[in-house]
Amino acid sequence: MEEKTEFLYVAQEQDIPLNERLFIEINEQPIVIFNLGGKLFAIGDVCTHDNGPVGDGQVDGYEVVCPRHGARFDIRSGKATKSPAFRDVPSYQIKVEDGKIFIKI
Ligand code: FES
After folding, report:
1. What's one GO MF term for it (predicted)?
2. Taking a C-beta distance cutoff of 8 angstroms, is the pair 45, 23 a contact?
3. Would you say residue 33 lies in a domain?
4. N or C, which terminus of the chain has less Cβ within 10 Å?
5. Inter-residue contact 33 to 45 (CB < 8 Å)
6. What is the domain extent for residue 69?
7. In this structure, which residue's CA is closest to atom 3 in ligand 1?
8. Residue 54 CA, closest ligand 1 atom number
């Protein structure tokens, strides 16, 4: 069976200044969008270790560090790169059209 996915409008490009982040919720799923050096990336905002608010964490290169216990995730892919998290967070495809940001869900 084909899975239904679609791009949803979530914000204006100007809502996420360079190296800032924006928190949104889609279908009750918390998502954080990072603007890293002018490129946008969206990942789930729930740490797979113990549900910490990973999007609040410090950014180190392309990684975000969960503020609860220090797990790291690659912002580009959602991949868990450091314990105590071993499962990846979801990563969402983004497209920008006419200054509007869309996320594929
Ligand atoms: S909740 Fe994120 S490292 Fe524990």
Report:
1. metal ion binding
2. yes
3. yes
4. N
5. no
6. 7-104
7. 69
8. 2
